[in-house]
Write a structure and sequence with these properties.
The protein is α/β, with parallel strands linked by helices. It contains 13 helices and 13 strands. The structure holds S-adenosylmethionine.
Length: 320
Amino acid sequence: MNIYVYGTGCGAGELIDTALDISRVAAFVDSSATGDFLGRPVISPQELANRPYDLVIVASRQAEEIARGLTELGIDPEKLLFLKNHFVPVDRNRNYEAARAVLGDAYIDKLQHSERLIRVPLWTQQERIEGPDAENDYVRLKTLEALCARLENVPGVIAELGVYQGSFARWLNRLFPERPLYLFDTFEGFDMNEAGSCDSGAGFLAAHTNTSVQRVLSALPQPERVHIRQGLFPETATGLEKECFALVSLDVDLEESTYAGLCFFLPRLSEGGFLLLHDYNNPRLPGVQKALARYEEAHGSQAAVPLCDVNGTLVIVGKA
Ligand SMILES: C[S@@+](CC[C@H](N)C(=O)[O-])C[C@H]1O[C@@H](n2cnc3c(N)ncnc32)[C@H](O)[C@@H]1O
C-alpha cells in the first residue's frame, strides 16, 4: 500500500509515535519543507499528484487549505484521511460589501462579530484574532483576546517559554504592540536529556526541531519589540530576576522545564496578570500537571481557571 503523510510537524510526529510504523510511509508531503523527516523523503504536493497512492493521511492543522490545494491537484478525495478536524466557527456570509453599503459599517461590524460563537467585548481597540489560528484552537485564542482587555492597567512585560514556530507568540506580539515580548526557547527542540527521561516519541521530538530564530522573527508583526532568549531555560532567564510579567505563556510540554518556568515566572507575575499553563489538562503530557502539583506543594496554590480549549490550558492569576 502506498501511504503518504501530509505534514512534517507535531501531528505527523504523533501519528508515527502512536499509530503508524515509519516503514509503512512512502514519503511525507509538505508544501514548504524539503529534505527528509524521520529518515523518509519529503515531497511536494505536486509530486504526490504524479505518484500512485492508496492513502494520504493529512496530519496537519491546516486541513482546509490542504484539502483545497489537493483538490486542485486532482487528488482523489476518497483517498484522503484528515486527522485534525478542529472546531471551525464558520461564518456563512461570504461577502459583506453589498450589505455594508445598505446597512452601514457599524451594523455590519457588529454582525460580523456576533457571528462568532464566543463574543469578546467590542470596546477593546485591539485587533481581533481571525483566520486559521483561531480555527485551530478558537477557545485558546479568543481567551487570549479577552484577557488582553483585562491587562490594560496591569504592569509588566509579556513572555513565552516554549515558542516553537511562533504561532502563539505572533498573537502575543500583535495584541501587545507596546510591550516588550521575551521569547524563550532553544529554537532547536527539546533538551534530549529531559525528553529521554520522559519517553517522548521520536516523531514528537523530530517535529519540534523544525524551527529557527529567523523563522520565528519573520512571522512576527513587531519583531523590534522582541527579546530572543535562545537556549535552555532556566539559564536563559539570567538577568531578568527583577523583571515583572503581565502575561506569560508557559508551553514546554515536559515536567522539569514546566516546573522551572513556574518557579521563575509565578513569583514575578504582576497582581492581576495571567500565566497560561498550556497542556494542563492534556492527558498526553502528564508532566505539566505534576509540575504544578510540585510547585503548589512548596508554595501554596493561587487562583486559576481551567479552559476548555484543545489542550486544556490552565489560566493562573497573579496575586499580590
Ligand atoms: C509545544 S512547543 C511550543 C508551542 C508554542 N507555544 C505554540 O503555541 O505554537 C514546546 C517548545 O518548548 C521548547 N522547550 C522545551 N523545554 C525547553 C527548555 N527547557 N528551554 C527552552 N525551550 C524549551 C521546545 O524547544 C519547543 O519548541
